[in-house]
Amino acid sequence: MMENNFESTVEQKDSWIVLSFKGRIDGVNASQAETAAVDTLKNANKLAIDMGELKYLSSAGLRVFLRVEQIASEAGKKFVFCGMRGSVKDILRESGMIMLFENYETEDDLP
After folding, report:
1. Residue 61 counted as domain residue
2. Which of 23, 25, 60, 77 gives a 20 to 30 Å CA spacing to 92?
3. pTM (2 d.p.)
4. How many distinct structural domains can be found in the chain?
5. What is the pLDDT along the chain (111 residues), one digit of tens a residue?
6. Domain assignment present for 1
7. Is 19 within 8 Å of 10 (Cβ atoms)?
8. Any residues with CB less than 8 A from the CB of 52 and at least 6 apart, and which?
9. Residue 77 falls within a domain, yes or no?
C-alpha cells in the first residue's frame, strides 16, 4: 500500500512475522502504520518491524511503536525491530526509545 510516501509489506521469516516499513511515518500516516502493525500482530506470536527502508520517523511514529509494544506485552507476544539505520536510528537513540526495544541488525539476525 502506497499513500503519503508510506508502504508496508508482510512476510514470514522462520518463526517471525516481519512487517517492513518503507518511506515515512509522520502525523499524516501514523494511523496507517499503527493499523498495519496492530493487524499484523493479531496473527503473530513474534513480530519484527523491519525499518531498513524507513527514511523518516516523527513523534507520531514513536507513539505508534509504544502502542504496539504495549499491545504485544499485554498479549504476551514478542515485538522487536530490525534493520534500523540512518536518521531513524538517530531519532530512536536521541529519544531514548532505542533502549525500550530489542533490535537486530537484519532479519537474518532474529533469534
Report:
1. yes
2. 77
3. 0.92
4. 1
5. 444 689 999 999 999 999 999 999 999 999 999 999 999 999 999 999 999 999 999 999 999 999 999 999 999 999 999 999 999 999 999 999 999 999 999 999 999
6. no
7. yes
8. 20, 82, 83, 84, 85, 106
9. yes
Residue tagged 518503507 (cell numbers): 22
Q: Is 8 in contact with 33 (CB distance < 8 Å)?
A: yes
Residue 17 burial (10 A CB sphere; 0-12, 13-18, 19+): middle
Residue-range definition of the domain harbouring residue 61:
6-109
Q: Cα 38–39–41 angle (5° rounding)?
A: 60
- Judge whether 66 lies within some domain: yes
Q: How far apart are CA 3 and CA 70, in angstroms?
A: 26
Question: The domain that contains 80 carries what CATH number?
Answer: 3.30.750.24
In contact, 69 and 101? CB cutoff 8 Å? yes
